[in-house]
Amino acid sequence: MAVHAHPDDESSKGAATMARYVADGVEVMVVTCTGGERGSILNPAMERPEIEANIGRVRNEEMARAREILGVEQRWLGFVDSGFPEGDPLPPLPEGCFALEPLDAASEPLVRIVREFRPHVILTYDERGGYPHPDHVKCHEVSVEAFEAAGDPERYPGTGDPWQPLKLYYHMTFTKERTLTLHRAMLDAGLESPYEDWIKRLEDAPPQWEVTTRVPCGDFFETRDRALLAHATQIDPNGFWFAVPLDVQREAWPTEDYHLARSLVDTELPEDDLFAGVREKVSL
Q: Which catalysed reactions does the entry list for this protein (predicted)?
C-alpha cells in the first residue's frame, strides 16, 4: 500500500516499484488523501478555462488513467487539498482542509482501508513530507498512525478487524547521491543536465534519512513515465521529468530507493526487496 497526498504523487514517487510488483503478481493499493483541488496547473497546454473551472473532476479522471497504466487498485480518503501556502508570513491554511483535520479524524478512513486491504508493506513520506507541503506532512502523520493503530483492537473501533502491517518505508526519491549521479551521467553523455539548480539547493538541504532499500525497477521506468503523463494538468511533457533519457537512467540509477522506518520482521540491510523478511514470515 502506497499512501500519497495528491493525485500525481503516486506516479512521481515509487511508480516503477509498484509496476514491478504488480508484474510479479503482488496486489498493490494506492491511497490518495486529497483530490488535489487546489493544485496549480503546471502544464501550459492545459491552462484553459474549462480545465481550471473543473480541476477536481479533471484530476480525478487523470488518476483513473494513471492507476490503469500502473495496474494498481486505488482509493480516495476524501479530504480537501490544503494548497501550498506562500509568502512571508505564510497565510493561514484554508478552513476544512486536510492539513487542519485532527489526527484521529484524518487517520480513521486510512485505518479502515488498511484493515480491509491487509497490506504487509506501507509506503509513505518522511516527517518533512519529502518537501514541506502541508498535505505531505499530514500524509506522513496519518500513515504512521495507521501503521501503529490498525493492529490494535482497542483503537478505531468499528473500522474492521485488526490488521498489523509488517514494514513501513519512506520514499527517498530525490537524494543527493541519486541527483549527483544522474547529473554526472548526463554530462558524461554530452547532454545538458537538468540538475544544476537542484544541486545548489541540495547543498543547503537538511540531512536525509539513510537509504536502506534499493528496488531494481529500471524495466518499468517507461510505465512510470506513461503514468506521469496521464496527469496532464501537473506534468509538462516537455518539462523536467523527461529531460534524462531512459537509457541513461537505467545505466546510472536503475532503482527506486526507500528508508525502512519500521519493521516487525527480521531483515538484513541493505535490502533490494520491500518484502525482504515478509516473504519468509508469511511462508512459515
A: mycothiol S-conjugate + H2O = an N-acetyl-L-cysteine-S-conjugate + 1D-myo-inositol 2-amino-2-deoxy-alpha-D-glucopyranoside
Q: Are 213 and 169 in contact (CB under 8 A)?
A: yes
CB 98, CB 106: distance < 8 Å: yes
136-192, pLDDT tens digit by residue? Answer: 999 999 999 999 999 999 999 999 999 999 999 999 998 999 999 999 999 999 999
CA distances from 194 to 179, 191, 240, 250 (A): 10, 9, 7, 17
Q: What is the pLDDT of residues 51-92, one digit of tens each?
A: 999 999 999 999 999 999 999 999 999 999 999 998 888 899
Is 136 known as a binding-site position? Answer: yes
Residue 204 per-residue DSSP state: T
Q: Are 128 and 173 in contact (CB under 8 A)?
A: no
Report how far apart, in Å, the C-alpha atoms of 83 and of each of 27, 86, 232 are.
Answer: 31, 9, 19
The DSSP string of 166-231 is SEEEEE-TT-HHHHHHHHHHHHHTT---S-HHHHHHHHTSPPPPPP-EEEE-GGGHHHHHHHHHH-
User: How many angstroms separate the CA atoms of 230 and 167, rounded?
Assistant: 30
- CA gap 158, 140 in Å, rounded: 23
DSSP 240: G
- Does the annotation flag 24 for ligand binding? no
Q: What does the alpha-carbon distance between residue 201 and residue 88 come to, in Å, rounded to a whole number?
A: 20
- Label residues 235-250 b or e (16+ Cβ within 10 Å = b): bbeeeebeebeeebbe
